[in-house]
Specification:
The protein is mainly alpha-helical. The protein has three domains: about 120 residues, no CATH class; about 35 residues; about 160 residues. Helices cover about 65% and strands about 0% of the residues. It has 18 helices and two strands. A two-stranded antiparallel ribbon has the order 1-2. Helix 13 runs antiparallel to helix 14 and helix 17 runs antiparallel to helix 18. The longest helix has 22 residues. It is globular, with a radius of gyration of 24 Å.
C-alpha cells in the first residue's frame, strides 16, 4: 500500500512478487501513473506529478497521524478486497477510487483526491522558484529558510521605520492567524448548476423539502464533478436543513450507506451521536445482504468510535450468536484485536 504523507492519496499494488519488490521504484511509478489516469488527471499534469519522484529513497516514519490513517486505510482495503472476491478482482480500481474519496480526519475531513490536487497546485508554484532537483527536500528547505531570514534581517535593519512595507516588496503577505483555507474555499464557492442552486436555496431556508430537493442532493452526491466546497460549508456549520434532508433521505433509504456516511460526517461538526447510533442500528437490523451489512457495521464503528461508542460490541449484543450477522461481527472484532498499532514504511 502506498500513501502520500501530505495528502493521504493512496493505492495498492496487489500480489507483488519478490522481483517486483526489488524494483519497487518502477512498480510504484507504474501504478501511480495508472491510478492518476483513473482519476482523469490530464496527461501534462500527470507527467509532472510522476516526475516529482525522479529519485526515490526509503526511511521509517514517526508520524502517528500518518500511521493511524494508514491503519484505517489498510483495514478498509482488506474489507473491500475480501468483499469483492480477492486481490485479482476487476473492482480493484473502483476500490482505490472509493478510498480516495473517504473523508480523512487528518485532512480536516477532506478527501485525499482533493488534497492531492490542492498540493499539486502548490508544488507547481514551488518548482518555478528554481529548486535544484538534485538537492534533497530537507537541504532545499534549509537553504530557502536561510535566504528568507537574511532578507528579513536586512529589510528590518535598513528600514527600521518602514520595515513592514519593505517586507511586502519582498513578496510577504499579512494574513490572519485564524485563516482557514477550507473555510475560505467554501466562502468563495458558488452554485454551478440548477441542482446546486436548489440545494443552496433549501439550506438557506427559502425552499421547502419536496422530493425534488432530495433528488438534487442525490444527483450532486453522485456527480463525477461535485462542488465539494459549496456543500461542505453546510456540514461545517451544522446546518439544520441539511440534517433534515439527510433524515428525510434515510426515511426513504434506511440502509443506504452513503447517506449514513454523510450523517456521520455531519456528526463531526455537530454532535448527534444518539441519532446516528439509532439510525445505524436500524440500518444494520434491516439490511439483508451480508456484504452490505458488513460494510455498514464497519462504517458504524468508525463513525461512532471517536464518541466512545463501541458499535461492534453493541451489534454483538443485538444479534443471536448463531446468526450470520453475529458471526460477521465476531470476525470483525477479532480482526480489530489482531490489527497492529502501527505500520512501518
Amino acid at each position: 500500500m502506498f500513501v502520500n504523507d501530505k495528502t493521504l492519496f493512496n493505492f495498492i499494488a496487489p500480489d507483488v512478487s519478490r522481483d517486483q519488490i526489488r524494483d519497487l521504484e518502477n512498480l510504484f511509478k507504474g501504478y501511480l501513473a495508472c491510478v492518476l489516469s483513473e482519476e482523469n488527471i490530464p496527461e501534462p499534469e500527470k507527467t509532472k506529478m510522476i516526475a516529482e519522484y525522479e529519485k526515490v529513497g526509503y526511511s521509517n516514519t514517526n508520524s502517528k497521524s500518518v500511521l493511524g490513517s494508514m491503519n484505517d486505510l489498510a483495514f478498509h482495503y482488506k474489507y473491500h478486497i475480501q468483499a469483492e472476491g480477492g486481490v485479482h478482482s476487476s473492482s480493484l480500481p473502483s476500490i482505490i477510487k472509493k478510498l480516495n474519496r473517504m473523508p480523512m480526519g487528518a485532512l480536516g475531513y477532506k478527501f485525499p483526491i482533493e488534497a492531492l490536487k490542492a498540493l499539486y497546485a502548490i508544488a507547481t508554484k514551488q518548482k518555478k522558484t528554481g529548486k535544484n532537483m538534485n538537492m534533497s527536500d530537507d537541504d532545499f528547505e534549509k537553504l530557502r529558510r536561510e535566504l528568507v531570514f537574511e532578507q528579513v534581517s536586512k529589510a528590518m535593519k535598513e528600514n527600521p521605520g518602514n520595515w513592514a512595507s519593505k517586507l511586502e516588496e519582498l513578496g510577504f503577505q499579512w494574513v490572519d492567524d485564524e485563516y482557514d483555507e477550507d473555510e475560505n474555499e467554501e466562502n468563495l464557492a458558488k452554485p454551478e448548476n440548477a441542482n446546486q442552486e436548489l440545494l443552496v436555496a433549501y439550506f438557506e431556508g427559502s425552499a421547502k423539502l419536496p422530493d425534488q430537493v432530495f433528488d438534487a442532493y442525490w444527483a450532486e452526491r453522485d456527480s463525477p464533478t461535485p462542488n465539494y466546497p459549496l456543500i461542505r460549508k453546510y456540514f461545517r456549520t451544522g446546518n439544520d436543513n441539511l440534517k433534515r434532508l439527510l433524515m428525510f433521505g434515510l426515511e426513504r433509504k434506511p440502509t443506504d450507506i452513503g447517506l449514513l456516511n454523510d450523517l456521520g460526517f455531519f456528526h463531526e461538526f455537530r454532535n448527534i451521536l444518539g441519532e446516528l447510533i439509532h439510525l445505524y442500528l436500524k440500518a444494520c437490523k434491516e439490511e439483508k445482504d451480508m456484504k452490505a451489512f458488513e460494510e455498514l457495521a464497519l462504517n458504524f464503528y468508525y463513525d461512532t468510535e471517536p464518541g466512545g461508542f463501541d458499535a461492534l460490541y453493541e451489534l454483538q449484543q443485538q444479534n443471536a450468536p448463531d446468526t450470520e450477522k453475529a458471526k460477521i461481527v465476531q470476525r470483525m472484532i477479532q480482526e480489530r484485536r489482531s490489527q497492529p498499532e502501527s505500520i512501518q514504511i
